[in-house]
């Protein structure tokens, strides 16, 4: 399934130095710090991290959905245009028509007093010139596409009539209504059971192949990432600490945090029957010390780590193209074989 | 997001309405507690040399038809009006919350009966019912308190009942049960403290309404009785002179409005304060 | 009875629990019958002392209802729960309090399961003093001991739950359960609200506590990875019934029920990038108000036969110590 990419296609979405900050205490502090990413056409990029790592904020920043108190700096280039600088009209056209979003909790993201059909229709009305009959046809087609049986009848149903999995399918249908090229998925399967999650993941893979979607998939589950993401970026304390092809990142991680995450999963237990938990807690964004944010919890941290801020970059000696890590001791990790 | 939320919370918790409301209410409480410190004259002293004087240097708020200083009377009346605000609501608050807590916690036939009684009380227009009870018992402040307690408990009871039913669903209530605690301990030590926020907020609004109601009833002659200085009574005193001596009614009116406004602001501020705190 | 003659710590037999579904006014006036949703339907289990039994299944399978029945937060409609041979359903007053002391629960949501208006110290010492385990004067010392046991700093006692992270709150919940010095812990989805790295810390804590205090545990979870790691035996539930039960490793390496197989196949694994495949299971969970006849799994089962549609497969033991509720399980005589 690994896609051949000898001539790397150009990125459709590029984040450069994306930073989100909040006012607080003395001045502002950053909750997303200098995130740079490229997403290519037809690619699923996993954005992985624990709660508070800034992964959802990054996603919302791309869509300009952050509350006013949060300041966004850097650039989000979508097909050559900076989304962060776009005016209200352009933004409205982009949202829904070119990029759309799938949320974690479909029950709260769907409007409970409008039928599913109406909600799809609304999006079509706003972004297309289709007439009523054509919009209806399109809506039926969409429910078919996401695998909701007897679509014609289900259009008239309200969200509460749908089960969790069906609701998530309905939300995906709404997100796809106007043929967006970019889908931002914010933990879309976290609230679902594993068997339903499996169905939704398969659906996303199929839609990506059929429609050529580009997807950023935010999750905390490395298993899910392994299943569907072509590339993966690991976030910690607002920064990307490692990025590369999913298979590479998960099998030969070059950041101690990624290694720690993989090791702390049950199934990778140490000899004494205990899990290798990462000690301590992630830092509070307001109380961030200089140097590497992970250093206080890192077994490998040296004196330099609490002074120098590591920069995300290719690791000297790594044979895998596109594999980057933000760790001062990444080269030592290669020497150790990069085993998780 | 938790850290972000924590910071936003610390910043936004104490809102401007809370500060202003608490300030106004505090000023009136201090004035009501120590009227002698603030009043320039004896509120009941007649001065036949200064009848119906317009506001001026000697009498900043003017004088009434007996030459009494309006400012002093408004200040002394604060004592009574704050008393009205508290006593008109506190009995309803106590009875209503305890009953509501029991209803919400136990449910069943007891709850069904209380709920029907509430339905019956709610059907009647509030003010008509109050006036009817006072008319039956006879005018006066004490009977006004009785009437308000008899009617107003339903609001607190309904509010508390709903809130307890909500809290009962939460896991800490289940945990208390699993830990082997007895019902009354679970209810009054665990659930009720967590259910008090909306009650306290509603109480502020209710006190503001009680001040207005007390003044209305005073004006109608059903509440405080002349010559006791009460803002409603003062306004009633001035009603015959409204064209010649506007200051007799206007200043007590302003006093009612500020206290009512202060209590409302305090209530709104508390919603924000508790709301932000609880969302953690 | 176990071979040694001792009754098991907890034995559940034929437990059933139904919840009445609210009818609207119009439905009542129209004389519609009272509808019921079956949450548990003939569940039988046993837990031996010192053992960890995992109960796995997806939402709506009844695993949390079972946990709540075990601590008498719900009372069962049918069947029995026995603690060391004593029927829990018949316990009243002091006897019930004694049972609750021995069988404690840790809750799923670390946020709502702690009283937000009590400090950690108050929460813990209340549990100690009310149950008469220590006099009030000795409670603070015991609180410090408990906090140390769950690796929280001593000054945690004076702080409120909101000052702690999810993982720390879950430690407080564990300390509160341990305050009663129980012999058995019912853990209801206690990891599902936590981050992966924090989950690992809590799992390690549970393991070390179990070793030090000799606790038995019923571990309710939907996370197959954790269950496989943590439990000695596992019971797989589907729509209120146990469909398979046995030694954890054996069940995971050779699942005998088609549902268990589908569940294992659906769980995403690191390093298992399968690409696009057919989902292990199609369709959605049937409504618990209207369970399918026969085997409840048959509408989603790829192997279902005519027999499955009409007859309920009972949970039967095999010689390997495994119990399976499937007509097609090996060893069953085909009819």
UniProtKB/TrEMBL annotation, chain A:
<dbReference type="InterPro" id="IPR027417">
    <property type="entry name" value="P-loop_NTPase"/>
</dbReference>
<dbReference type="GO" id="GO:0005524">
    <property type="term" value="F:ATP binding"/>
</dbReference>
<keyword id="KW-0472">Membrane</keyword>
<dbReference type="InterPro" id="IPR003593">
    <property type="entry name" value="AAA+_ATPase"/>
</dbReference>
<dbReference type="GO" id="GO:0015833">
    <property type="term" value="P:peptide transport"/>
</dbReference>
<dbReference type="GO" id="GO:0005886">
    <property type="term" value="C:plasma membrane"/>
</dbReference>
<dbReference type="GO" id="GO:0016887">
    <property type="term" value="F:ATP hydrolysis activity"/>
</dbReference>
<dbReference type="InterPro" id="IPR017871">
    <property type="entry name" value="ABC_transporter-like_CS"/>
</dbReference>
<keyword id="KW-0547">Nucleotide-binding</keyword>
<dbReference type="Pfam" id="PF08352">
    <property type="entry name" value="oligo_HPY"/>
</dbReference>
<dbReference type="Pfam" id="PF00005">
    <property type="entry name" value="ABC_tran"/>
</dbReference>
<keyword id="KW-1003">Cell membrane</keyword>
<dbReference type="InterPro" id="IPR050388">
    <property type="entry name" value="ABC_Ni/Peptide_Import"/>
</dbReference>
<keyword id="KW-0067">ATP-binding</keyword>
<dbReference type="GO" id="GO:0055085">
    <property type="term" value="P:transmembrane transport"/>
</dbReference>
Automatic annotation (TrEMBL), chain B:
<feature type="transmembrane region" description="Helical">
    <location>
        <begin position="142"/>
        <end position="159"/>
    </location>
</feature>
<dbReference type="InterPro" id="IPR035906">
    <property type="entry name" value="MetI-like_sf"/>
</dbReference>
<keyword id="KW-0472">Membrane</keyword>
<keyword id="KW-0571">Peptide transport</keyword>
<feature type="domain" description="ABC transmembrane type-1">
    <location>
        <begin position="78"/>
        <end position="267"/>
    </location>
</feature>
<dbReference type="GO" id="GO:0015833">
    <property type="term" value="P:peptide transport"/>
</dbReference>
<dbReference type="Pfam" id="PF00528">
    <property type="entry name" value="BPD_transp_1"/>
</dbReference>
<keyword id="KW-0653">Protein transport</keyword>
<feature type="transmembrane region" description="Helical">
    <location>
        <begin position="117"/>
        <end position="136"/>
    </location>
</feature>
<keyword id="KW-1003">Cell membrane</keyword>
<feature type="transmembrane region" description="Helical">
    <location>
        <begin position="250"/>
        <end position="274"/>
    </location>
</feature>
<keyword id="KW-0812">Transmembrane</keyword>
<dbReference type="GO" id="GO:0055085">
    <property type="term" value="P:transmembrane transport"/>
</dbReference>
<keyword id="KW-1133">Transmembrane helix</keyword>
<feature type="transmembrane region" description="Helical">
    <location>
        <begin position="199"/>
        <end position="222"/>
    </location>
</feature>
UniProtKB/TrEMBL annotation, chain C:
<keyword id="KW-0547">Nucleotide-binding</keyword>
<dbReference type="GO" id="GO:0005524">
    <property type="term" value="F:ATP binding"/>
</dbReference>
<dbReference type="GO" id="GO:0016887">
    <property type="term" value="F:ATP hydrolysis activity"/>
</dbReference>
<dbReference type="GO" id="GO:0005886">
    <property type="term" value="C:plasma membrane"/>
</dbReference>
<dbReference type="InterPro" id="IPR003593">
    <property type="entry name" value="AAA+_ATPase"/>
</dbReference>
<dbReference type="GO" id="GO:0055085">
    <property type="term" value="P:transmembrane transport"/>
</dbReference>
<dbReference type="GO" id="GO:0015833">
    <property type="term" value="P:peptide transport"/>
</dbReference>
<dbReference type="Pfam" id="PF08352">
    <property type="entry name" value="oligo_HPY"/>
</dbReference>
<dbReference type="Pfam" id="PF00005">
    <property type="entry name" value="ABC_tran"/>
</dbReference>
<dbReference type="InterPro" id="IPR013563">
    <property type="entry name" value="Oligopep_ABC_C"/>
</dbReference>
<protein>
    <submittedName>
        <fullName>Peptide ABC transporter ATP-binding protein</fullName>
    </submittedName>
</protein>
<feature type="domain" description="ABC transporter">
    <location>
        <begin position="10"/>
        <end position="264"/>
    </location>
</feature>
<dbReference type="InterPro" id="IPR027417">
    <property type="entry name" value="P-loop_NTPase"/>
</dbReference>
<dbReference type="InterPro" id="IPR003439">
    <property type="entry name" value="ABC_transporter-like_ATP-bd"/>
</dbReference>
<keyword id="KW-0067">ATP-binding</keyword>
């Amino acid at each position: 399934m690994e896609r051949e990419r000898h001539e790397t296609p150009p990125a459709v979405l590029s984040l450069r130095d994306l930073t989100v900050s909040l006012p607080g205490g003395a001045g502002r502090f950053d909750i997303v710090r200098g995130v740079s990413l490229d997403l290519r056409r037809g690619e699923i990029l996993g954005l992985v991290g624990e709660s508070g790592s800034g992964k959802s904020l990054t996603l919302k920043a791309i869509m300009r959905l952050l509350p006013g108190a949060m300041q966004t700096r850097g650039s989000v280039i979508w097909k050559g245009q900076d989304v962060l600088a776009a005016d209200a009209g352009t933004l409205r056209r982009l949202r829904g028509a070119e990029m759309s979003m799938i949320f974690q909790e479909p029950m709260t993201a769907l409007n409970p007093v409008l039928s599913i059909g109406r909600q799809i229709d609304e999006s079509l009305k706003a972004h297309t010139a289709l007439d009523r009959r054509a919009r209806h046809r399109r809506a039926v087609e969409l429910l078919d596409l996401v695998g909701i049986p007897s679509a014609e009848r289900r259009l008239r149903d309200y969200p509460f009539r749908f089960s969790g999995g069906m609701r998530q399918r309905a939300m995906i249908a709404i997100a796809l209504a106007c043929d967006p090229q970019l889908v931002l998925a914010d933990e879309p399967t976290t609230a679902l059971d594993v068997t339903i999650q499996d169905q939704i993941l398969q659906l996303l893979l199929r839609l990506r192949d059929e429609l050529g979607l580009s997807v950023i998939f935010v999750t905390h589950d490395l298993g899910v990432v392994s299943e569907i993401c072509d590339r993966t970026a690991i976030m910690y304390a607002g920064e990307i600490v490692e990025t590369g092809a999913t298979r590479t990142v998960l099998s030969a991680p070059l950041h101690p945090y990624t290694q720690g995450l993989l090791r702390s999963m049950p199934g990778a237990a140490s000899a004494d029957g205990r899990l290798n938990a990462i000690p301590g807690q992630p830092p509070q964004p307001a109380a961030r010390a200089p140097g590497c944010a992970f250093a206080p919890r890192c077994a490998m941290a040296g004196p330099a780590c609490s002074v120098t801020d590591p920069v995300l970059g290719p690791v000297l000696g790594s044979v895998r193209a596109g594999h980057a890590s933000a760790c001062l001791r990444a080269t030592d990790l290669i020497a150790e074989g990069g085993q998780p | 997001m938790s850290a972000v939320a924590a910071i936003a919370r610390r910043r936004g918790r104490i809102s401007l309405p809370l500060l202003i409301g608490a300030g106004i209410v505090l000023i009136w409480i201090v004035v009501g507690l120590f009227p002698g410190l603030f009043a320039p004259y004896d509120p009941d002293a007649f001065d036949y040399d200064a009848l119906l004087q317009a506001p001026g240097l000697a009498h900043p708020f003017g004088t009434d038809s007996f030459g009494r200083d309006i400012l002093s009377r408004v200040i002394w009346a604060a004592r009574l009006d704050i008393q009205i605000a508290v006593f008109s609501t506190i009995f309803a608050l106590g009875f209503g919350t305890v009953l509501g807590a029991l209803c919400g916690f136990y449910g069943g036939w007891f709850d069904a009966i209380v709920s029907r009684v509430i339905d019956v009380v709610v059907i009647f227009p509030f003010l008509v019912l109050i006036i009817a009870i006072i008319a039956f018992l006879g005018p006066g402040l004490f009977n006004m308190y009785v009437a308000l307690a008899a009617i107003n408990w339903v609001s607190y009871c309904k509010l508390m009942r709903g809130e307890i039913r909500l809290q009962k669903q939460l896991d800490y209530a289940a945990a208390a049960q699993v830990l082997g605690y007895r019902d009354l301990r679970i209810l009054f030590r665990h659930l009720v403290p967590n259910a008090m926020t909306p009650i306290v907020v509603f109480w502020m609004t209710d006190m503001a309404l009680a001040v207005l109601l007390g003044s209305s009833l005073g004006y109608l002659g059903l509440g405080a009785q002349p010559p006791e200085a009460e803002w409603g009574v003062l306004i009633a005193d001035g009603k015959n002179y409204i064209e010649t001596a506007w200051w007799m009614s206007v200043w007590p009116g302003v006093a009612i409005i500020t206290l009512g406004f202060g209590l409302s602001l305090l209530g709104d501020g508390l919603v924000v304060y508790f709301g932000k705190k609880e969302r953690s | 009875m176990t071979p040694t003659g001792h009754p098991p710590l907890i034995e559940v037999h034929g437990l059933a629990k139904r919840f009445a579904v609210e009818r609207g006014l119009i439905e009542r006036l129209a004389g519609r019958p009272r509808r019921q949703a079956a949450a548990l339907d003939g569940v039988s289990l046993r837990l031996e002392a010192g053992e960890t039994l995992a109960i796995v299944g997806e939402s709506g399978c009844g695993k949390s209802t079972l946990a709540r029945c075990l601590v008498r937060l719900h009372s069962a409609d049918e069947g029995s729960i026995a603690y060391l041979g004593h029927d829990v359903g018949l316990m009243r007053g002091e006897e019930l309090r004694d049972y609750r002391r021995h069988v404690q629960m840790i809750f799923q949501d670390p946020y709502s399961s702690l009283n937000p208006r009590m400090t950690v110290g108050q929460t813990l010492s209340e549990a100690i003093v009310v149950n008469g385990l220590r006099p009030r004067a000795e409670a603070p010392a015991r609180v410090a001991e408990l906090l140390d046991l769950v690796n929280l700093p001593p000054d945690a006692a004076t702080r409120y739950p909101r000052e702690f992270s999810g993982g720390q709150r879950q430690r407080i919940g564990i300390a509160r359960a341990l305050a009663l010095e129980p012999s058995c812990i019912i853990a209801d989805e206690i990891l599902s609200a936590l981050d992966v790295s924090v989950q690992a810390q809590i799992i390690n804590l549970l393991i070390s506590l179990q070793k030090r205090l000799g606790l038995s545990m019923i571990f309710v979870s939907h996370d197959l990875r954790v269950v496989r790691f943590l439990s000695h035996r596992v019971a797989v539930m589907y729509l209120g019934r146990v469909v398979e039960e046995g030694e954890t490793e054996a069940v995971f390496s050779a699942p005998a029920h088609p549902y268990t197989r589908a569940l294992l196949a659906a769980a995403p694994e690191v390093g298992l990038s399968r690409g696009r495949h057919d989902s292990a299971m199609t369709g959605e969970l049937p409504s618990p108000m209207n369970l399918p006849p026969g085997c409840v799994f048959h509408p989603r089962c790829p192997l279902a036969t005519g027999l499955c549609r009409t007859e309920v497969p009972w949970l039967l033991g095999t010689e390997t110590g495994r119990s399976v509720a499937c007509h097609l399980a090996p060893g069953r005589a085909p009819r």
